[in-house]
Amino acid sequence: MLVVGKSSSTAATSNEPGPDVADYPMDTVPNKVEQLFKAQHFHDRKQFELRQRQSTEWRKKHPPVDYLNPIIADADTGHGGLTATMKLCKMFIEAGASGIHIEDQVPGTKKCGHMGGKVLVSTDEHVNRLIALRLQADILQYPLVIVARTDAEAATMILSNIDPRDHPFIKGATVSGVESLIHATHAGTDGDWEKRAGCMTFVDAVAGRLKGDALKQWFAKCYDMSLAELRGFAKQLGAGEVFFDWEQARSVEGFYRIQGSTKFCAQRAKAFAPYADAVWMETATAGLQQAKEFRDDVLSVHPHLMLAYNNSPSFNWDASGMTDEQMRTFIWDLAKMGFCWQFITLAGFHQNALGISLFSRAYKKDGMMAYVQNIQRQEREKDVSTLTHQKWSGSELIDAYLKTVTGGKTSTAIMGAGVTEDQFKSKL
Question: Is the pTM of this model over 0.70?
């Protein structure tokens, strides 16, 4: 399976590089999908032509390579409203994507999942995006896999408080009389505003007043209530009247502040589940305990839902607290929990950068010996097909076309007289 995304750094159709804030043209990732999809089919055709020239016995001993792995592409936030999301979905399908993932952030403030300053849309708005994607796929009669991603663990703001499902996680001032502090906060001169205003969720404010069975009852039910319902339930449990004003806590841009958490991610994943094939919680660190907490919560309601996990290079894996052996078994441990789609965003990017960097340093010191020793001999010893890159690029297939057209009389075959890749037929 191929994962296509993070094109902002290297492959935007505007040719303007930048960080992953989805400010590139909306055709960027679909274009990359199309490039990969066509490359897959080309290498499949190349392989088929080669195999047809071999004996039945040879083909039995050499099984074909499956080049047609499904492509899962990054839809970011949908690049706009619902009609833009539908158009983007259509572009992906026509380009050859088997699936897409889409996150619950706001267009315009979208950030990579491992950046700060993330702002969520309401749960309802992201549900509508998922419905729009499915509608577009159904219109095209295409079995698209939809992965719903949530950034509700590390996000700090939300665009709207319109959806009651988000209310338990929205923060507000719990100390009255803090109006005079708001302007200073928004001007950036009072970084201690949240502490002075007692800025927290209504859930946490009430929890601070309850003990014993009342506290257990509160946490057992509070995450499925609107603010109005929470106020009534808090009084019923004996918490009394709790001052809470989420308007005072709004950011300078007007966003509501939220308390991100694994629980918020699980609540959103359960809301997205009826409209998606898999759900993905973007995490700040790698760890089995958090993955299990998310899994247990989500699958308690949707036991057959597929789960996704990002084994991200943005994590400092050596600082994760895992031993080498735990890292070695990590993906299989996740798989046992039900995380059936796991991926490493930017693995190829980092591998390419490392390889080129090491080669450049060695080339400066050892010249061509660096290339021969570090690349060409390694390709030969590890049986990497790019050793003969013209052949890998399909020269033999093109020669077969030419010979078919000319009845075998062509003198301009790519792999004809003078081809230097003949040098690789004998050991160097």
Answer: yes
* Burial class, 83, CB count within 10 angstroms (exposed 0-12 / middle 13-18 / buried 19+): exposed
Point out which residues pair with 131 in neighbouring strands. none
Q: Is the sign of the CA dihedral 282, 285, 291, 297 positive or negative?
A: negative
Residue carrying the six token digits 């928004």: 186
State the Cα–Cα distance between residues 357 and 25, nearest whole angstrom.
Answer: 30
Cα separation, 79 vs 82, whole angstroms: 9
pLDDT tens string for the chain (428 positions)?
555 555 555 666 666 666 666 677 899 999 999 999 999 999 999 999 999 999 999 999 999 999 999 999 999 999 999 999 999 999 999 999 999 999 999 987 765 655 567 899 999 999 999 999 999 999 999 999 999 999 999 999 999 999 999 999 999 999 976 554 554 444 444 457 788 899 999 999 999 999 999 999 999 999 999 999 999 999 999 999 999 999 999 998 999 999 999 999 999 999 999 999 999 999 999 999 999 999 999 999 999 999 999 999 989 999 999 999 999 999 999 999 999 999 998 888 899 999 999 999 999 999 999 999 999 999 999 999 888 888 888 888 888 888 888 887 777 766 666 666 677 775 54
> From the candidates 112, 199, 222, 265, which is the catalytic residue?
112
Q: Structural domain boundaries of the chain?
A: 2-152+260-345, 164-257, 365-418
Tell which CATH classification among 3.40.50.10440, 3.40.50.150, 3.20.20.60, 3.40.50.300 matches the domain 2-152+260-345: 3.20.20.60
User: What's the DSSP call for residue 375?
Assistant: I
CATH C-level class of 164-257 = mainly alpha
Look at residues 36, 55, 15, 160 and name the one whose alpha carbon lies nearest to residue 97: 36
Q: How many CA atoms lie within 13 A of 255 on its CB side?
A: 18
Token digits of residue 154: 């590390």
Identify whether 222 is a catalytic site residue: no
